[in-house]
Design a protein that fits this description.
With 314 residues, the chain is α/β, with parallel strands linked by helices. It has one domain: TIM Barrel, CATH 3.20.20.70. 37% of the residues lie in helices and 18% in strands. The strands form 3 sheets. Strands 3-6-7-8-9-10 form a 6-stranded parallel β-sheet. Helix 8 runs parallel beside helix 9. Bound molecules: iron/sulfur cluster. Iron/sulfur cluster binds next to loops.
Length: 314
């Protein structure tokens, strides 16, 4: 038996929905975290770095930097983070990060030019403007950017005033991924992430004015207090802002694994069918706003496909 959405989309059979209504690993990395094995030792990593230069056609170099600090905690969070307002901790962390970069550089063979650099978190924009400029210049000294490289950062609008947008651009970032999740005030309150629509709107226009050529927006479905109607309104507001890409993640409620999630009341979570409706509505609306990545030399997934492939709880 299938169940029909009012949008006219046939939803999968209820039994099938129940069968697959289980938490799954976040699809933010490949392979996903549950595929990682403990038998991959530091020596294996070292060997891989040393073997790279021997390859006839070494793969392009991509670097990920994790900045784990956040000033406040979002209750849905399942990320590797440190909640603090103490900037001494980030200063210490940057030193260790650069030691790690030195270590990698000392083992790496082949070209050290970066094709892609990404800062994720946590909240990379927790860093001050000076810290951002310093860390980036140190990284560039070790790993120069290749021509046309993609330099991206995850941005929390609550910690990114216009002077920081300028500092990011000045340090070399050209792509931005903005954490939004949901624009509905009740949902934002339930997850302890108060972020007015205007704040995101202003950040996007500042990013465009300062020359960011690709802006992604992260959304989450399955959050407490979320309904099909409320999320449809969020999508309308997202479309109004016209990001280049959207990543739609699924919220996995795993309070035994992630302590902040214990502050979320299970009774506030949307049910399976409501979530599937939310996702199908999203696909219906966003399908008319599909954009390919503007970088002509790279193939990218269209917005709706990217969203449907992602599963996580950023
Ligand atoms: S969701 Fe992001 S900003 Fe919120 S606590 Fe987790 S890492 Fe920090």
């Amino acid at each position: 038996m299938s169940t029909s959405a009012t949008s006219g989309v046939e939803l999968p059979d209820r039994e099938l929905l129940r069968k697959f209504d289980v938490p799954a690993p976040r699809y933010t990395s490949y392979p996903t975290a549950d595929r990682f094995k403990n038998d991959f030792k530091p020596e294996d990593y070292e060997q891989a770095l040393q073997a790279r230069g021997a390859s006839k056609k070494p793969a392009g170099l991509s670097l990920y930097c994790h900045i784990p600090f956040c000033s406040d905690v979002c209750f849905y969070c399942g990320c590797n983070k440190v909640v603090t307002r103490d900037h001494e901790r980030s200063a210490e962390y940057m030193k260790v990060l650069l030691e790690e970069a030195d270590l990698v550089k000392s083992k790496l063979t082949g070209s050290g030019e970066l094709e892609q650099l990404h800062w994720g978190g946590g909240t990379p924009t927790f860093l001050t403007n000076d810290e951002i400029l310093f860390l980036m210049s140190e990284l560039r000294a070790r790993f120069p950017f290749a021509p046309g490289s993609e330099i991206s950062i995850e941005v929390d609008p609550r910690t990114c005033p216009e002077d920081k947008v300028k500092a990011l651009r000045e340090s070399g970032f050209n792509r931005m991924s903005i954490g939004v999740q949901d624009f509905n005030p009740d949902v934002q309150k339930a997850v302890n992430r108060i972020q007015p629509f205007e704040m995101t709107r202003d950040l996007m226009s500042q990013a465009r004015d300062n020359g960011f050529h690709s802006i992604n927006m992260d959304l989450i479905y399955g959050l407490p207090k979320q309904t099909r109607e409320s999320f449809a309104q969020t999508i309308d507001r997202v479309i109004e802002l016209s990001p280049d890409r959207i990543a739609l993640y699924h919220y996995a409620h795993l309070p035994n694994h992630f302590k902040p999630q214990r502050r979320i009341l299970p009774a506030d979570l949307p049910g399976t069918e409501e979530k599937v409706h939310i996702m199908f509505d999203y696909r219906g609306k966003s399908a008319h706003h599909v954009r390919l990545d503007p970088a002509p030399h790279r193939k990218r997934l269209p917005v709706h496909r990217h969203g449907s492939l992602c599963q996580g709880n950023r």
